């Protein structure tokens, strides 16, 4: 069995906001240091691996930001590190990979998490097929979405993320009003969670910055105000800057261990990894992929939706979040009870660690036994993890 022992993250900054001057490898290192501060008795040399999520890698991420961040955080050089890239799911994929290492006996203690600085994502130039080309070369942004697309890819697969979600909206008949209401609720829940102190234990400030809370939360947001925003992707569309997640910067970290690792870590676990699931479908329908991923994770955990007390679903877009909640036929009141990515932000590689750490704390505070963390992933994929609260009645304990 794999247990989650601690979780920490930075505040999530807005694009070109308070964290714009911080390199992604430094953001990751700060998150690693913060989660290890929660286990002061742990000998850092006992960490078997660092598995880190990152969707870019083209710039200061330096291709293997997991190893770079571990070194910057002061871990012994003997602690290895790797970086996984499943786009928006990279952080959760890292957590899933870490849990498998522990369950197979390859490791006892693994650090996982993820980072993204969408502000500092570089522009890239394609290499010319001959020296000294006479024509111009176009710089391409690596911040988000498709780039340098292979001409053999079907055109319907490579539409923008926003256009893909407009198509999802048409497929499931989800209105602009529902999307705006969902988005406004996300801001209100996130603000209330901060005001109540929920995030104080999970979020650590970034040295050299003044940011202490997630920068994108707008507590005064209302459905009526969002209704005045113009659609971004279609003249007659429904998706706006207000009902989609913003570009963001941030990092999250998770400390995993086996049952017998509790003594070395020096603390009791928060939750157990009870099930994992991955799924895929047509690339332009990526927003709907969490549906099957979560269903598979639940099946592997041996439970059903009726036993789930909390859901952390990454809000890439309000429309895809609503499509997933509708498909699962669950009570929306158990979804993202402390706000979601529309308000908090979505730094791609960091979001998986954020939702898993948040879910563990929600389960504890609400005394629920099972929860689901899920997110959609560009190019038609979804990931999900089932957590079991180790304090809940009947749950395994170490």
Question: Any chance you could write out the topology, listing elements then pairs?
Answer:
Layout: E1 3-9, E2 13-14, H1 24-36, E3 49-53, H2 65-72, E4 81-84, H3 90-103, E5 109-117, E6 123-124, E7 140-141, H4 161-172, H5 176-196, H6 223-227, E8 248-257, H7 262-265, E9 271-280, H8 290-301, E10 308-313, H9 318-328, H10 341-344, H11 351-366, E11 370-377, E12 381-389
Parallel strand pairs: 3-4, 3-5, 10-11
Antiparallel strand pairs: 1-8, 1-9, 2-8, 5-8, 6-7, 9-12, 11-12
Polypeptide structure, described:
The chain is of the alpha+beta class. It has a domain at 3-119 and 246-388: Thiolase/Chalcone synthase (Peroxisomal Thiolase, Chain A, domain 1), CATH 3.40.47.10. It is 30% helix and 19% strand. The protein has helices at residues 24-36, 65-72, 90-103, 161-172, 176-196, 223-227, 262-265, 290-301, 318-328, 341-344, 351-366, and strands at residues 3-9, 13-14, 49-53, 81-84, 109-117, 123-124, 140-141, 248-257, 271-280, 308-313, 370-377, 381-389. The strands form two sheets. Strands 1, 2, 3, 4, 5, 8, 9, 10, 11 and 12 form a ten-stranded mixed sheet that branches. A two-stranded antiparallel ribbon has the order 6-7. Helix 2 links the parallel strand 3 (49-53) and strand 4 (81-84). Helix 1 crosses helix 2. It is globular and about 60 Å long. The relative contact order is 0.21.
């Amino acid at each position: 069995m794999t247990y989650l022992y601690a979780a920490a993250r930075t505040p999530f900054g807005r694009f070109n906001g308070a964290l714009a001057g911080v390199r992604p490898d430094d953001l990751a290192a700060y998150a690693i240091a913060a989660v290890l501060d929660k286990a002061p008795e742990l000998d850092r040399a006992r960490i078997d691996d660092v598995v880190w999520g990152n969707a870019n890698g083209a710039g200061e991420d330096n291709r293997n930001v997991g190893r770079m961040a571990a070194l910057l955080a002061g871990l012994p050089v003997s602690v290895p590190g790797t970086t996984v890239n499943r786009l928006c799911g990279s952080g959760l994929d890292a957590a899933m990979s870490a849990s498998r290492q522990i369950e197979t006996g390859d490791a006892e203690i693994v650090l996982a998490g993820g980072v993204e600085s969408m502000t500092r994502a570089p522009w890239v130039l394609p290499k010319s097929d001959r020296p000294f080309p006479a024509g111009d070369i176009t710089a391409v942004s690596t911040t988000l979405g498709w780039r340098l697309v292979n001409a053999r890819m079907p055109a319907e697969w490579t539409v923008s993320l926003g256009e893909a979600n407009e198509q999802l909206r048409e497929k499931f008949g989800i209105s602009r009003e529902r999307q705006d209401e969902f988005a406004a609720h996300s801001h209100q829940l996130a603000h209330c969670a901060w005001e109540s102190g929920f995030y104080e234990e999970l979020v650590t400030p970034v040295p050299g910055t003044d940011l202490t809370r997630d920068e994108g939360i707008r507590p005064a947001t209302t459905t009526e105000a969002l209704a005045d925003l113009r659609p971004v992707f279609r003249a007659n569309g429904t998706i706006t800057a207000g009902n989609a997640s913003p570009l963001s910067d941030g990092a999250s970290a998770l400390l995993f261990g086996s049952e017998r690792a509790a003594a070395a870590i020096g603390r009791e676990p928060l939750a157990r990894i009870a099930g994992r699931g991955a799924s895929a479908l047509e690339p332009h329908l990526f927003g709907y992929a969490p549906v099957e991923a979560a269903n598979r994770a639940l099946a592997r955990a041996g439970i059903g939706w009726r036993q789930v007390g909390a859901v952390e679903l990454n809000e890439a877009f309000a429309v895809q979040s609503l499509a997933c909640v509708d498909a699962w036929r669950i009570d929306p009141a158990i979804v993202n009870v402390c706000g979601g990515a529309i308000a908090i932000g979505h730094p791609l590689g960091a979001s998986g660690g954020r939702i898993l750490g948040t879910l563990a704390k929600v389960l504890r505070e609400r005394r629920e036994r099972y929860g689901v963390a899920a997110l959609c992933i560009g190019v038609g994929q979804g990931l999900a993890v089932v957590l079991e609260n180790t304090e809940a009645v009947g749950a395994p304990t170490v």
